């Protein structure tokens, strides 16, 4: 079994685990289960017990689409280049599958454990995911599918590289803040901190790249 087939096997395994867990939980579930939570971590949407499979289905399809998109990005990206590393995008795709599967497991767990607030698991996991993305960002080459795809980053490789170098640091630190905020603070406070961090993580690289563009794509 070659490397690509082995990775695909693990991808399918990760996608299948939430389905197995859902099947395990199904017999013990009440007829009505929570399907949506508000920012306080309180259930505000409900459905039949069969809806336990809805999350794994949505996350699974999203995982497959993202994985195949990233692992075949050279074939249809207008900015495809020999400089684009297949291994990097395969890792990026695998990481996305891992994150979405973990997210699906968290939703399933909190659905069957009413004493656990979903945000105490959800925000830390998302924070770790964003921190990990921060590590990968400086390695991304120009493309139309992943990264800060702004007009000025797509037209200039120096702008792209500088923007993603800055973005990597901001996302790493922002993700760590989100992780600890989810563990330490209340539901509402952790949501506010998570949202503020997310805004900063988007705005700082965007503003930096635009200012570099206005400066003739020269580092200031």
Map the helices and strands:
Blueprint: H1 3-25, E1 32-37, E2 43-48, H2 54-71, H3 73-76, H4 86-112, H5 119-136, H6 151-155, H7 157-184, H8 187-214
Antiparallel strand pairs: 1-2
Helix pairs in contact: 1-2, 1-4, 2-4, 4-5, 5-7, 5-8, 7-8
Protein described:
With 220 residues, this protein is mainly alpha-helical. It has eight helices and two strands; from the N terminus they run αββααααααα. It is globular, with a radius of gyration of 20 Å. The N and C termini lie far apart (49 Å). The mean pLDDT is 81.
Concise overview:
By secondary structure, this protein is mainly alpha-helical. The chain has eight helices and two strands, in the order H-E-E-H-H-H-H-H-H-H.
Order of helices and strands: HEEHHHHHHH
The value of Rg in angstroms is 20 Å
Beta-strand percent range: 5-15%
* Oligomer class: single chain
Please identify the structural class as seen in this structure. Answer: mainly alpha
Distance between the termini: 49 Å
**How many structural domains can be distinguished in the coordinates?**
2
* Most strands sheet: 2 strands, antiparallel
Which segments are poorly predicted (pLDDT under 50) over 5 or more consecutive residues? none
Morphology? globular
Helix tally?
8
Helix content: 55-70%
* Tally of DSSP β-strands: 2
| Physical arrangement of strands within the biggest beta sheet | 1-2
Global mean pLDDT: 81
């Amino acid at each position: 079994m070659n490397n690509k087939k082995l990775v695909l096997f693990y991808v399918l395994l990760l996608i299948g685990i939430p389905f197995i867990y859902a099947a395990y939980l199904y017999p013990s579930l009440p007829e009505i289960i929570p399907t949506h939570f508000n920012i306080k971590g309180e259930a505000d949407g409900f459905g039949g017990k069969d809806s336990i499979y809805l999350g794994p289905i949505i996350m699974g399809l999203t995982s497959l689409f993202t994985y195949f998109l990233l692992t075949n990005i050279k074939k249809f990206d207008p900015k495809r280049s020999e400089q684009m590393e297949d291994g990097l995008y395969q890792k990026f795709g695998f990481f996305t599958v891992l994150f979405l599967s973990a997210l699906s497991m968290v939703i399933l767990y909190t659905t069957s454990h009413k004493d656990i607030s979903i945000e105490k698991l959800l925000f830390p996991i998302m924070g770790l995911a964003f921190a990990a993305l921060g590590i990968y960002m400086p390695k991304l080459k120009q493309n139309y599918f992943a990264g800060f795809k702004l007009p000025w980053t797509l037209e200039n490789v120096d702008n792209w590289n500088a923007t993603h170098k800055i973005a990597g640091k901001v996302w790493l630190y922002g993700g760590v803040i989100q992780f600890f905020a989810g563990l330490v603070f209340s539901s509402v406070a952790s949501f506010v901190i998570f949202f503020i961090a997310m805004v900063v993580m988007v705005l700082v690289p965007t503003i930096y790249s635009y200012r570099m563009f206005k400066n003739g794509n020269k580092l200031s």
